Amino acid sequence: MAWIFIPRQTPTITVLTGLILVFLLPAMANSQIVGNGYNNSLIYKIQSDTNTVYILGSIHVLAEEYYPLTRSFSYAYYNSQKVIFEVDPEILFSPETAKKYEKYYMLPKGQTLKSVLSPSTYQLVKKKIQPLGLDLAQINTLKPWVVYLTMSGSFDSSIEFRPDLGIENYFYQRAKDAKKPTGGLETAQDQLTVFDSLPMKVQDAMLKETLTMTDSKKREQAFLHMVKSWHQGNLEGLEELVETMKTFPLFYKKLLVERNNNWVPQIEKFLTEDKNVLVIVGAAHLPGEDGLLVLLKAKGYQLERVSYVMP
Fold it and tell me: Rg of the chain over CA atoms, in angstroms?
């Protein structure tokens, strides 16, 4: 099962919607890996008769050690006149959005984790909460999926990974400074609904699985493994990870399958425009039989890896 990294803090719309696609892979992360001035970034391009659309597989949280980004990132960004994200950051980071969707995190009045979780899962929550620096009273009225996100990403890393250093925020700030238009493939509510629509039994099972990982160091290593795979452009490794997500078929369907299929027509529409577009999505959306790359190829589009075709 894939894990989702959430910084140790009270959940907010920015954290929960901005970080729902951080995945873990079995390889060890270290310093930036660059060869011949390039890296193996997960950036692809599709050329139409009128423009070029770039698709960038991102990591939603990063550390300073991964900057500056290498040439293929700059190439895709500077050659695009518009930048599209999963959710438009103009909406995602607004205080109004945070307030509007706050209700999604909370259980209905009168319900608590004890009343909605199975006894075994609730006992695990009680056992694991204190070592993670959290208090049961703080989370007792949160929905299980919010607790899942919060607790699965709670570990102490010697490297500080932050959302403001993630790929989305990096390019959003540059687009904003350059007055490039931005947009989103979906709304903040769409992203929250991925989790909020899961039946309570599924939320319980996912939370129980993440809590049975007894060693927080393993979670930290798993997260660092993912970062290295992304940085090396290991599409095959990402595909192996996506396969493990099928442990929870409904979650897999809502998180990847349905959203990928919703995004393909929008990418096709971008290909009819007269200006180039950079589309930035979580890296796990790219590989696999249900991934964007396969879906777009099935539509007859030719995709080229930017890190392999740069002039």
Answer: 19
